[in-house]
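Throughout our pipeline, every protein is held as a single compact record rather than as scattered files. The remainder of this section carries one protein's record, kept here as part of the documentation.

===
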Amino acid sequence: MSWFSTLKAKFTPAQEVNEEKIQQCLEQFTLPTSQHPLKERITQLNIEQNTLQMSIFIYDNEIEHIQHIHDTLSQALIPAGIQTLNLHILQKKQPKNTSPIPPTTNASDNSTIASTATYQPKTTEPAIQKAAPTQAQLKPHPHIQHVIVISSGKGGVGKSTTTVNLALALQELGLKVGVLDADIYGPSIPTMLGNAGQSPLIENEQFIPLEAYGMPVLSIGHLTGDGRTPVAWRGAKATGALMQLFNQTLWPNLDVLLIDMPPGTGDIQLTLAQRILVSGAVIVTTPQNVALMDAQKGIELFHKTNIKVLGVIENMSTHICSNCGFEEHIFGLGGGDTLAQNYHIPLLGHLPLNASIRENADQGKPSVIAQDAAYESYLKIAEKLKACIAELPSKHDDKRIF
């Protein structure tokens, strides 16, 4: 098995995508400053339709070349069928007074894998004296009744698509809903809601959220421009951006603000749990074991931070062939049900694996707006979620002033 196959996570690639050409391109590409092979910096790959999502790490002296790396690599991948490159950057400090660490060889497949230095904390670093605030100590937002986070343990499970459709369905059920895109490194909400390329106005040093289908919406993607510019920020800057989008935005009075979380259980998730009062979380997963393993980590994180998990949504549950009508469980069967049973949380519903969901989201008209084959499924899930929200205690605070 090659290094490419080991890292790659593949979901419904487009027919014109040639994986052999992608692998060849990545193997031949070198970084402009160090001439270091790019493939030894790659930590994750994900091919979805004609989009390649890739995570790499770079050193401080290479940060100014990120845009050049992104643009050059994007052009090189076009012959392989890749139309969009989403590059996620992890910045590392260059080890001082040390020679470069030679790559190690994986004995099982003779492929080259980059070694990384291990951080050793200084003994002089002061211990943290003040405990992080808990959910019980946080104050609610003055204009938002409930903050609900839509989360997943891993990428590629359709979390953002689920977020926008749930928001639209809840609005259709009579709630005042807003959407905040907290996926700082890979914002996709602007595209899915049809307002990519638009920027919010600023009034009294606060953002005026954009409107999409009657909902107030804001994403870091609305601030970075064309959607091709990679966000290469350290964790502290990324979490600071999230708090600025939440606190320095003139949100109207809302019943619910849905926050589309980035995948994983890292800095942004912890910062949100320690600084934003959250009414509940919804976990999105697919039936396959890999997704379920990561979804469990997300649930455990919310339990540890005293955030109630309102339910599980199983996406890509079943596929019905458009030609013959045969139903197939491509990613497995019953995974979401088992997860909900093991943690004693509601299963809010199943969503189909249907090309129309992706096609409509790519065109900026989600399933609830297009009323495609998944419309009824989203509406039923929204009805269950609305019932869960109705049982939550009110967290509105009219006395809070920013």
